[in-house]
Structures are given as structure tokens and as C-alpha cells.
Amino acid sequence: MSVAVPDAAGASEQPQDHQHQLVPSDISLRVKSLESLLVEKGLVDPAALDALVDTYENHVGPRNGAKVVARAWTDAAYKKRLLADAASAIAELGFLSTQGEHMLALENTAKLHNVVVCTLCSCYPWPVLGLPPVWYKSSAYRSKAVIDPRGVLKEFGLELPEDVEVRVWDSTAELRYLVLPERPAGTEHMSEEALAGLVTRNSMIGVEKVKVPQAEGAR
Amino acid sequence: MNGVHDMGGMHGMGPVRAESNEPVFHERWEARVYVLTRAIGAWRKWNIDTGRFYIERIAPADYLRMSYYEKWYVRMVELLVKTGTVSREEVETGVPAPGSPKLTPPLRAEQVPAMALNRNIASSHEPAIRPRFKAGQRVRARNINPTGHTRLPRYARGKTGSIEIDHGVYNFPDTSADGRGPKRQHVYSVRFAARELWGDQASPRDSVHLDLWDDYLEHA
Questions:
Q1: Could you tell me the domains of chain B?
Q2: What pLDDT score was predicted for residue A6?
């Protein structure tokens, strides 16, 4: 299929991966037509399609990863297992099978900051973070993260001092990465469940730190 | 292939725009493209490497202009037709050709939750397949320019780094993608100093780690 849409003036100022206004309006019709064909031929089961949508919209997502992080923050033995063999440690919480599964947990510290990208496509740890956000799949992030990671982090509001080492992980193979962000100061009183509530998706990709909400910190 | 998909280090792609409270899918058709691709995948008519290659083959101007899931739609149609699973005419009409057999889908709804939590990538400890490198060794990423699928990004080719971790044995994407077979071999985490990749503009402490197959590497 070729999309004969003329280049709109000023298009270069727009993010180029998600411009719905430039997508032919019949895409939803074409997808509907393809789905109906595949169902009619017995190639896909409509109930399985609905189950897949439900799974990724409601059951698999960054809340899974946040539980892993909160457990690692509150249980030193678990953290050790997570850093030694992430797939098995994550499986302990029921989020993925160890069979053929390869994950690495990357610990951020005061002196080391890890950040994850896939420059070639959109590789992302689905079982713990769900499907990637649009910005992660964007040309802007994929092109810049490896050559100017500090600039990218600044775009997310995170300015790192020069004495902090930045390590970028380009997911070029089947290894998948989960960043274990630093536990913020002032959270000693918080339960594992409350801590999980602080952990953002972006902090587990490595583009943000975990912050304590003002009300929490003031307590 | 030296395609536009291989964008590590390119300039001019604009700012990174993060959306707050982003939905998993922005439109219903995007969700349907995603789940159709996953459900069709259960037929195992093509592997993950071929799937990636069919995204990379999209013409550069279209690749940059299309949304993510539109590329997935194009990939699915092209691979369905190429594998003879459906015909181009059937895609156009949305109706099975007369006399088409009714098949039984391999993926049932009850299998979905387990599948979503298990990526099931073929990898294992295979002592018979020897690693060519070990942790700590200096290596150079080969200067190769294959016209087919490869997972060695341009920005690392010819650059020198060090082996950090041996991840074990995986299918080799370059041959797996075009039917030449899995050619299983070791994959390593290779650390490249940011200055080796980008020169003095990079911070002296920083590094980029890539996961690279044996065939991408030579001793340095």
C-alpha cells in the first residue's frame, strides 16, 4: 500500500510517528474489512481478539512493573534476585514465565543512570510495562536517545550532573530491560503497596526519577 | 538494510513529545491491528525477524509518515499475501474467495492471558554452541551493509567496545528473517563508550550498550 498524502507545510515541526490527520480516513474501514475476512476464513477467533484487547487495556501494563520495583525496594533479598535473574524474580510475582524469557533489571543509583531505547523498532518489556507509549516509538526518541541521552532526559525534566554516568541500553536483540529506579528519600514510612503507587512507567524506562508527591513528602 | 528505520544518531526528528494519561490504544482500529497481528502470529507462518523486516521494507517516506499501527497493518497484509494465507483480491473485497475452506484458529480466548505474559522467545543454554567471545574482551562491530534484515545498527559498525555479558544462544536475525535458517549463536551485551560512537561531543562517562550476535563481532 502506498499512502499518497502530500507533505503538509510545517510537517517537519510535528512528531512524525503519530499523525492521525495524515492517515487516510479509510484505515478503520480497511482494518474492519481485514478482520471480517480473517474471521470468515477461520484464521482468527473473534473471542480471542476481544480477550487480547482486554488483556492489554486492562491487565498488562506498568502497574506490573511498579509492583516489581516496590518489592525490590522493600525486600533486599528479592532485589538481589531481581538483579541476578530478572526473569525468575519477576515470575515470582506472576508476571511472566521463565521459559525462554530474558530480562535484565538495571539499577539506577546516585552515580549511575540507565535509560532504555529501541533504535531499530519498538522493543519493550510487554509483560511488565504493557505496550509502549507513542513517544517511545517515535522517531525523535529513537534517533536521539543514543547520541544525546542527556538532552532527551532534559526534555523529560531530568537534568543529571556530569559526574553521573549515563548508560543507554539499545534493545537490539531479544533481551528486555526494566529500570529499577532509585527509591526516593522520605518514603521510609510507606508500605510496599503505597510505594508501587509512586512508580511511574517513565521511571522504569529510565527517563524520569520517582518523585514523592508534595503531600506525601510533607507528612 | 540501511533503511530509515535504523535511526540511532539521526538529527532533525524534532522534540520528544510525551502525552500524559496516554491510552493503550488511541483508536479502535489500532487495537484491532495489534490483536489481529498477535492472533495471526499463532499460525507461525512467519517469525519475529521476518515480521520486523516487513516493517523495515516500507518505503522510507511512507515509513516516516505512517503511524505505528498503520505500519503494522501494511506488514500484516503483505505477509498474509506473501505466505498465501489470503489473496490480494480477498483483502480488497474483505470476503473469502468462493470455495475457501473454513479453518480453525489456533489461538483461543482462554489461551490469551498466559500468552500475554510469556514472550516465548527461543533461547536456551546450548553447550554445543560455543561462544566466540567472553566477558572483558575487546571487540569491533563489523562493517557490514547487508541489504536484508540485520540488527546491527549503522551507528555501531566499525566501532570498538567490550563484551560485558554473554546472554546465551539465540536465532540469528539476518538469516532467520529470509528463510536461511536460525543459525543459532551467542548474543552479548557490548559496551561502547559514548565518545567512541559520537566523538568529543559526548560525555566521557557515558556509554551505549547493544546486544550483538557473534557474527556481528570481530576481535579488536
A1: 28-116 (1.10.472.20), 127-219 (2.30.30.50)
A2: 37
